[in-house]
Amino acid sequence: MGQNQKSLIYAFVSRGSVILSEYTEFSGNFNSIAFQCLQKLPASNNKFTYNCDGHTFNYLVDNGYTYCVVADESVGRQVPVAFLERVKDDFVAKYGGGKASTAAPNSLNKEFGPKLKEHMQYCVDHPEEVSKLAKVKAQVSEVKGVMMENIEKIA
């Protein structure tokens, strides 16, 4: 059970390569790796997953914004992807009006950081339900995900 608590480790929302809000309870270099990956992501709307060091770096790129979560590899892909979808929906609902398009780096941390934490907690606590939803969504969009086994390829 203890393992489960560390399943989702770090998350952020960015506009291009400007991180607007991030959240983690753990220390490690995953945030700098996540940022390096971010700078090399194609700008097209898509989902990307990179594997590194027993972790997956999961990205959802949508309309100029990137949603990222770093997860323990043991979690698989469905929970991180479901988390990103939830965060995206929440973020767009909250900031779709334009505040995010001019927000300064990290300026949404206070407001949106707790939301990232909340979604993380929810997905960690309800993996079955979340996976089910993710499966349904995946079938609908025939997962456009791109798996890259090795972070070296983008580093």
Which stretches are poorly predicted, pLDDT < 50 over at least 5 residues? 142-152
Query: What is the annotated CATH architecture?
Result: 2-Layer Sandwich
Query: Which class do the helix and strand fractions yield?
Result: alpha+beta
As for the CATH topology, it is Beta-Lactamase
| Helicity range | 40-55%
- Cα-atom Rg, whole angstroms? 14 Å
β-strand amount: 25-35%
| Whole-number tally of structural domains | 1
Sheet of most strands: 6 strands, mixed
Number of strands: 6
Describe this structure in words.
With 155 residues, the protein is of the alpha+beta class. The chain has a single domain (8-141), classed as Beta-Lactamase, CATH 3.30.450. The chain contains 6 helices and 6 strands; from the N terminus they run αββαβββααααβ. The chain has helices at 2-5, 30-40, 78-95, 99-102, 109-125, 127-141, and strands spanning 8-15, 18-24, 46-52, 55-62, 65-72, 146-148. It has a 6-stranded mixed β-sheet, with helices on both faces. Strand 1 and strand 2 form a beta hairpin. Helix 3 (78-95) runs antiparallel to helix 5 (109-125) and helix 3 packs across helix 6. It is globular and about 35 Å long. The chain starts with a helix and ends in a 7-residue tail after the last strand. It holds the Pfam family Longin. This is Longin domain-containing protein. One of its GO terms (cellular component) is endomembrane system. Residues 132-155 form the V-SNARE coiled-coil homology domain.
